[in-house]
Amino acid sequence: MEKTLVLIKPDAVKKNHIGDIIRIYEKNGLKIMAMKLMKMDEKIAALHYAEHINKPFYPELVEFMTSSPLVAMVLGGEGAIKKVRDLHGATDPQKAAEGTIRRLYAKDKSENAVHASDSPESAAREIHIFFSEVEIFA
């Protein structure tokens, strides 16, 4: 079973879309293997967004992601990484397909409701930033 990290970002949490978003994952055959409501701090942000640290948008990204609670999850299933990314839609909600999470719940390219790992390597790295092995259930 393939695993992926998903974050329901602060904007979607503030707007009470947690249940709506989780329902989409479950309706599409994905299994919740780990989940927690948490507040990202600057240390976690630096680990998670390491490749963006020297980019001009990094301070704004960290400010947004640490602004209020988010939901971190590990989802599992056959082809989970691609399935989740397809369910999320394009980063820009205006370009996202009808019915995708970002089309339904995102404000813009910055406040875009959700994050998902983009590859098996990213998933393996990202999952362990947020969860220890004992927190992940098959």
List keywords for this structure.
alpha+beta, four-stranded antiparallel beta sheet, 138 residues, 4 strands
What does this protein look like?
With 138 residues, this protein is of the alpha+beta class. It has helices at residues 10-14, 18-27, 42-48, 58-65, 80-88, 101-105, 120-130; strands spanning 2-8, 31-38, 70-77, 114-116. It has a four-stranded antiparallel beta sheet with strand order 2-3-1-4.
Biggest sheet overview: 4 strands, antiparallel
Poorly predicted runs: none
- Helicity range of the residues? 25-40%
- β-strand percent reads 15-25%
How does the SSE layout of this entry go?
Layout: E1 2-8, H1 10-14, H2 18-27, E2 31-38, H3 42-48, H4 58-65, E3 70-77, H5 80-88, H6 101-105, E4 114-116, H7 120-130
Antiparallel strand pairs: 1-3, 1-4, 2-3
